[in-house]
Amino acid sequence: MTESDGGAELVSLSDDPDCRETPLPALDSWITPTDRFYVRSHFPVPEVDRSAWRLTLEGEVGRRMALSYADLISRPSTDSVVMLECAGNSRRHVTPPAEGISFSHGAVGNARWTGVRLADLLEEAEVRAGAVEVLAVGADYGEEEEEGAALELGYERSLPLADALDPGVLLAYMMNCEPLTPAHGAPVRLIVPGWFGMASVKWLERIVVLSKPYDGFFQDRRYVFIPSGASKASWESVTKLAVKSIITQPRHGEVVPPGEYVISGKAWTGGGEVARVEVSCDGGDTWADAVLVGKSTPGAWRIWEHRWNASVAGHFVIKVRATDSAGRTQPDPVPWNFRGYANNGVHAVAVEVPRRSER
């Protein structure tokens, strides 16, 4: 299964469930077009009738709510650009191999989302004292294998109450100024800036305010870091994005013309902002600062560029690494975990510079 836009195609990694990623050269703009935006599903895409859809808000609240789609879109809306990255992005490059869908580096995208602030609904519902988490429940369900047994379950994840109240968290019903598509969570999905994509629950149908931490399957058995030999008591949750950068131009294996060449890509972080991007054109022996392009928008990625004087013929390894305002820099290598989550290791591509033609 593919989607195309002017020749760019999403690469299918799984038909059931539907999982597709974007070729890096297609991530060539600040806003990722919807049909170039990666898709990550755990189960078959549910069929949701927008006219019959209801979102319930319940649990530790003084006022239970049930909203239709018309109710939701009639409320004051907000519009923001937020990037999402699958927690399994770059899993293919983990050594030794990790368990899970074999994403390369293209399970990431930056889109404009329109929706209602979750914080506004929680305020209206009158969250009770003692509430600690907010659970988001999607309409998708199916089977997951765990310890050799098939489990029937749906997709749901929780956020700490303080994070759920962040004004950037949206119940989004539009993506890039158009209604959400089924693959991207129609009719309504959660958008959680700064967190890996598993927190942005699609096909949203229930919000439940909890008085104790949630320990469901996708909180307790998936999206956790499992180092080699670690006991379950030491597993840690996958939460906020790691600082990371990728090269979108040139592509791996490209023949780069001799002379000045613009290397470019994207960088992001889950905390603070991208402060610095460095590029090496000699496999990491020396590094030079790239130029950050455009303004810094909270929750979105940054474009970066570096001008390389490709004056010598040969084969070269280009690397990139980012540092954020908290002082975190991409590691090389990344500590291994069983499912290869949050791989933010230094990205590298190999290119060739041919000899100049003689006249």
If you had to describe this structure to a student in words, what would you say it looks like?
- The strands form seven sheets. The chain has a five-stranded mixed sheet with strand order 7-6-15-10-11.
- The chain has two domains: 4-237, Oxidoreductase, molybdopterin-binding domain (Sulfite Oxidase, Chain A, domain 2, Alpha-Beta Complex), CATH 3.90.420; 244-353, Immunoglobulin-like (Sandwich).
- 6% of the residues lie in helices and 40% in strands.
- It contains four helices and 25 strands.
- The protein has helices at residues 69-73, 118-125, 161-164, 217-220; strands at 4-5, 8-9, 11-14, 19-21, 39-40, 54-59, 65-68, 78-85, 108-117, 133-146, 149-160, 170-175, 178-179, 189-191, 204-210, 224-225, 236-237, 244-249, 259-268, 274-280, 288-289, 291-293, 302-310, 314-324, 347-353.
- The model is unreliable at 1-7 (pLDDT under 50).
- By secondary structure, the chain is mostly beta strands.
- It is globular and about 75 Å long.
- Strand 3 (11-14) and strand 4 (19-21) form a beta hairpin.
In a few lines, what is going on in this structure?
This protein is mainly beta and 359 residues long. Helices cover 6% and strands 40% of the residues.
